[in-house]
Amino acid sequence: MDIFDSASGSLQSYPWVMTTLQVVLLVLVIWFANTLTRSLLVRSVTRAVKLAPSQWDAAILGRGVIARLANVVPALIAYYGIAFVEGLPHGAVTLVRGVASAYVVLTIALSLANLLNAIGAIYEQRDPERARARPIKGYLQVAKLVIYLLAAILMVATLFNRDPLLLLSGLGAMTAVLMLVFKDTLLSLVASVQLSTHDMLRVGDWIEMPQLNADGFAIDISLHTVKVQNWDKTITTIPTWRLISESYKNWRGMFESGGRRIKRSLFLDQTSVRFLSAEERTRLRRLALMADYLDGKQAELEEFNARLLAEGKDTVNTRRVTNVGTFRAYVQAYLRNHSLIHQDMTLLVRQLQPGPQGLPLEIYCFTSTTAWADYEGIQADIFDHLYAILPQFGLRVFQQPSGEDVQRAVASWKMVASGGARQIGGCENATGDR
Q1: In sequence order, what are the residues at sequence separation of 6 or more whose Cβ sits closer than 8 angstroms to the Cβ of residue 151?
Q2: Max CA pair span of the chain
Q3: Rounded Cα distance, 183 and 332, in Å
Q4: What single string gives the DSSP state of each residue in 362-416?
Q5: Cβ contacts of residue 399 below 8 Å, gap of 6+?
Q6: Among 5, 61, 257, 408, which residue's Cβ finds the most Cβ atoms within 10 Å?
Q7: In terms of pLDDT, which residue wins out, 133 or 149?
Q8: In which order are the strands placed within the sheet that holds 214-221?
Q9: Quick check: 426 pLDDT over 50?
Q10: How far apart are alpha carbons 218 and 200 in whole angstroms?
Q11: Residue 216 β-bridge partners
């Protein structure tokens, strides 16, 4: 004690040395408290979680909520311990206390933000389907924005030793400026609420937005942006508010219905349309899908024509079966008997307005699968069959003349021209007269 008293007496002669030692001692206490808090608090909570694991505990530990809160203890020691350091100016003490208070506010704000992240992770893990249908990521981001805004106000108030209510009242005068600064945030907030409330968009929905070159699945919906992974694996980022102010196509209804639409036309050469002869009708009856149609049509036409002739009308008014009508009936029967065509949805085979490209015969139906590759395979198989069987009905597909067609026409013209020249030359030799 005598040695300690003599040492402290000697240090009294040098106050700056005493102040330095006290500051160093305070720093060591803060470091020791930080280490002890982390080792005791974090490790004890971790062990408790391992004994009784749950989603909440794992999410909170994984997001660092407890680790953030552990930093509050050293900051509080700095706040109260700086008052015991002798010889420090009042301004230095005020500054340290202000920084410590601001650090406590920042730590709590970051902990709350991490807690919101944990809540979002638990929400997605517990019910992934509901999380895709009702994402809360936008709401959590709004809550974090409010937390950060309040934390910034409190930090500024503590650093400058001002009343936070005065700063909040001053924000009222800055409302117009804030509206301009946070314009996109406010628009996105309203859009997020509308998208979620009206169930307009979910994670995993296939959407098309040509004006923004977006065509693919929505992979992330946040407060400000919606990320769409296009079919070429590129990512298109769309501002959330544009999904409310502009139109886009959502293919979710197609997937939920269980059927994908086929809407494609066969373009027939109109000059190949004609009546079927009796021999052709007999030949087409060999097709299993045509026998019932031809028999029923034949009975209907014979009854109509017999009544027409009984009335003394000319035979030119009689009805006959056409090849295009028979082919249309065949396509209808073919689709009705196709195992991969959805029979409970709309199924049509119809003629569209003829044009320069021929007579369009449109096939309108739905496949029983929504998988893209399977859908394309079913559609290709159907039209492969229809193109191949078309000549059986005496019909031709219309297409623009190709280079091969032009070459054949020129070759035929040359053969005709050369044959005519030989005939003319033979006449000259026989008669001796041109």
Answers
A1: 105, 106, 108, 109
A2: 158
A3: 56
A4: EEEEEES---HHHHHHHHHHHHHHHHHHGGGGT--B-----HHHHHHHHHHHHHH
A5: 267
A6: 61
A7: 149
A8: 235-239, 225-230, 214-221, 206-209, 249-250
A9: yes
A10: 12
A11: 207, 230
Q: Are strands 225-230 and 214-221 parallel, antiparallel or unpaired?
A: antiparallel
How does pLDDT run across 273-282, given as a tens digit for each residue? Answer: 999 988 998 8
Q: What is the pLDDT of residues 235-291, one digit of tens each?
A: 999 999 899 889 999 999 999 999 999 999 999 999 999 999 889 988 998 888 988
CA distance 346 to 343: 8
- Please provide the DSSP assignment of 293-317 as one string: HHHHHHHHHHHHHHHHHHTT--GGG
pTM, to two decimals: 0.59
The edge-to-edge listing of strands for the beta sheet with 359-367 is: 260-268, 359-367, 348-351
CA distances from 140 to 63, 240, 305 (A): 15, 15, 77
The owner of tokens 């196509």 is 249
Q: Are 284 and 392 in contact (CB under 8 A)?
A: yes
Phi, psi for residue 337 in degrees, rounded to 5: -105, 10
Name the strand (E) or helix (H) holding 267: strand 260-268
Residue type, 339: S
| Helices 90-126 and 72-81, packing angle to 10 deg | 170
Q: Are 216 and 202 in contact (CB under 8 A)?
A: no
Q: Which residues of 198-230 are buried (b: 16+ CB within 10 A; e: fewer)?
A: eebbbbebbbebeebebbbebeebbbbbbbbbe
Q: What tokens appear for 416 in the block?
A: 């005709």
Task: Name the residue among 366, 398, 276 with its Cα closest to residue 330.
Answer: 276
Please check the confidence at residue 178 and state whether its pLDDT lies above 50.
yes
Closest to 216 measured CA to CA, from 225, 227, 128: 227
| Residues pairing with 263 in the sheet | 364
Look at residue 10 and tell me whether its pLDDT is greater than 70.
no
Instruction: Share the mean pLDDT of the chain.
Output: 82
Place of tokens 């040695």: 3
